[in-house]
Amino acid sequence: MSGARKALDGYAMLLMLGLCLCWGFQQVAVKATAVSMSPMLQTGLRSAGAALLVCGLMWWRGKSFSIRDGTLLPGIAAGVLFAGEFLCVSIALNHTSASHVVVFLYAAPIFTVLGLHWGVAGERLGRLQWLGIWGAFAGIALAFSSGFDGAADAWQQTLIGDACALLASLFWAATTILVRRSVLSEAAPTTTLLYQLVVAAVILLTIALGAGDGAAVSMTGMAWASLFFQVVIIAFASYLTWFWMLRRYLTSRLSAFSFLTPLFGVGFGVLLLHEQLGARFAAGALLVLGGIVLVNLRRN
């Protein structure tokens, strides 16, 4: 397939809307069942289960997997970055709200377009997009400053969680840039995803089980439902769709469209987890979203 990518069409926008809904609910589902199973163990099991599903899909399609096609090293690197992202997310969910995590995590499009600006033709930014970048960074700073509200113990925990969520967004952006600028850009979506899932499963399960998370598992009905959602819908179906779209559409446009995810995530957090939003955090989140919208307003 040619390396040329195109702007988003109606079909791509509809797919991205569905992905944003699923991703917005993702952190809320993990947070809601954290008492039954630690976020890190959930993420590790999710990666392992989805890896098995991807292997089954490749077998059903008669597709082979080879480490001699030049994808091994970038595939492992992408897996390490993917594991780093969800390691940070797991830690963040233990210290801050799901609403905070989803807003800071989905600042990733800002870092993605910055990374692609200097190295990929067709992904460069104009003046309007740079305005969006600076607006988003101002929003991140304002939202992050809201973590200082409240008692010392509370704001220290919130800042740790917020910082981990922001670090996770950097890992996510680095993963997207690596995929776009390596041979993984033209690899089958199943190949790219399988590398990430297998490496992440090994790393996250090793850390979670080493920390004793397996001894505190209580598989309630909600925990099973969350695990099914994480494995089948998120780590299998949504990520395969995402990598398929990365092969066909401009990466910066796809990343920027995901500005809807924090809106869904915050909404789910408030409605389902009864999370409270401070004025500064809400204002900062709106600045971040506005900045990402400006980044997406580009001429085709």
How would you describe the overall organization of this protein?
- The protein has 300 residues and is an all-alpha fold.
- It is 74% helix and 0% strand.
- It has twelve helices and no strands.
- It has helices at residues 10-32, 39-61, 72-93, 98-105, 108-117, 127-145, 152-181, 189-210, 221-246, 251-257, 260-273, 279-296.
- The radius of gyration is 19 Å and the shape is globular.
- The mean pLDDT is 82.
Name the features.
mainly alpha; globular; 300 residues; 74% helix
Summary?
The chain is mainly alpha-helical and 300 residues long. The chain has twelve helices and no strands.
Class of secondary structure makeup? mainly alpha
Main β-sheet description: none
What form results from the Cα inertia axes? globular
Are there runs of 5+ residues with pLDDT below 50, and where? none
Determine Rg (CA atoms, Å): 19 Å
Total number of strands: 0
Binned, the helix content reads over 70%
Strand content: under 5%
Number of helices: 12
Order of helices and strands: HHHHHHHHHHHH
State mean pLDDT (0 to 100 scale). Answer: 82
The rounded distance between the terminal residues' Cα atoms is 21 Å
